[in-house]
Amino acid sequence: MLVFSDVRKSYRNLEVLKGLTLSVPRGSLFGLMGQNGAGKTTLLRIAAGLLALDSGELLVGGIDVRRDPARAKRLIGFVPDGFGAYDNMSVAEYMSFFASCFGLYGRSARLRTEDLLQRVGLSARQDSLVTELSKGMQQRLSLARALIHDPELLVLDEPTNGLDPGSRFSLRELLGELSESGKTILLSSHVLSELSEICTDIAVLDKGRVRATGEVQEILRQIANSNPLRVAVLNGEKTALRMFRTNPCVRAVMQEGKQFHLEFIGSPEDEASLLQQLIDAEVPVKSFVREPGTLESFFLNMTVGREERIIVHDEDESDM
C-alpha cells in the first residue's frame, strides 16, 4: 500500500531521513517506533502528502506521489498529533466543512457524517462546539474527519498521546475495527506496549533509517529468542561457569555466587541442550528461566548502543 524507496529529507543542513526504505503492506496496522528525532513525524507527514521528499520515491497504492499528488492524496486520511480546533463550529458543521472539501454536499454528506459520528461514539454531540469536547472526543472527531472521503490509508501521528486510559482503549478498539474492515493504518506511538497489542507490523526508526521491520509476532519471537537466561545452581558453580563460557550461544555471563545471568542468543532447542549438558555434568540446577521480553527491550537493543559486557566471577575462579 505504501512504499518508500531511498527517501531523503532535510531541513536546512539537518538530514532527517537518510535513504529510508520501507514497505507498509495493504491492510496492515503498521506501527512506527523511534526516539524523539528519529524521523517518525517527518515520515508520517511525507506519507500524508504534507511534506515533499527531497529525493527517492514514494508510492501510495501504486501511485507515484511526485507525478500525481492529487490522486495519491485522495487515498489518504491524516490525523495529526494536535487537533487544531475551529472555535465557532459545532461537531456537525466541522464534519460538513471537511465533507465539502472532498465534494460531498447535502444528503450524502449528512448521511456520511451521521455514520462516522456513530462509529466514533459522538452521535449525541453533533450540536456541541468542538472546543467543548474532551481531548479524547476531539481525537475521535479528528479520526472521523480523516475518514470522511473513505480513504484506503490512514496516517496517525501519536493518536493516543495525552488521552486518559478509557479514551485510549476506545481509540485502540476503533483502530482495530477499521483495520479489520480493510483500511491500511500507519501510526506512531511512544506507548510501545500499545503497538504490540494492536499492530500487525512494526518498524524501528533510528537517526533517519529503518533499523528493523517485520510482523509483530515475528519480532516478539526474535525477542523471546534473545532474552537473558537466569540460571541458579545448588553447587558446581565452577563447572557451570566453564560450560557457559564455552557455549556458542552465550555472548556473556555474569555470576553472583550460585546465580548466573546469561546473555543468550539461542533458540528454545539451544536452551534445552544447555540444560541437558548441565544435568549430564551432574550440576544440580535449582532454576533455569528465560526472562520475558517486550517491545521496549527490542527497541532499546535496536536504538541504543550495546554496552560492553563483562564476565563477573568469584575471585577463586583463577584456581580452576
Question: How do you describe this structure in short?
Answer:
The protein is of the alpha/beta class and 320 residues long.
Which labels suit this protein?
320 residues; alpha/beta; Rossmann fold; Alpha-Beta Plaits; 2 domains; 6-stranded mixed sheet; 11 helices; 36% helix; P-loop_NTPase; AAA+_ATPase; ATP hydrolysis activity; ATP binding; ABC transporter domain-containing protein
Low-confidence stretches: 305-320
Overall structural class, as computed from helix and strand content, comes to alpha/beta
The CATH homologous superfamily of the largest domain is named P-loop containing nucleotide triphosphate hydrolases
Question: How many discrete structural domains?
Answer: 2
Helix content: 25-40%
**C-alpha end-to-end distance:** 60 Å
Helix run count: 11
Largest sheet, strands/sense/barrel: 6 strands, mixed
Number of strands: 14
Report mean pLDDT, rounded to a whole number. Answer: 88
CATH-scheme architecture of the largest domain: 3-Layer(aba) Sandwich
CATH topology of the largest domain: Rossmann fold
Strand and helix map with partners:
Elements: E1 2-11, E2 14-24, E3 29-34, H1 40-47, E4 55-60, E5 63-64, H2 69-73, E6 76-79, H3 91-101, H4 106-119, H5 135-146, E7 153-157, H6 165-180, E8 184-188, H7 192-198, E9 201-206, E10 209-215, H8 216-224, E11 229-233, H9 237-246, E12 250-256, E13 259-264, H10 268-280, E14 285-290, H11 295-303
Parallel strand pairs: 3-8, 3-9, 6-7, 7-8
Antiparallel strand pairs: 1-2, 1-4, 4-5, 9-10, 11-13, 11-14, 12-13
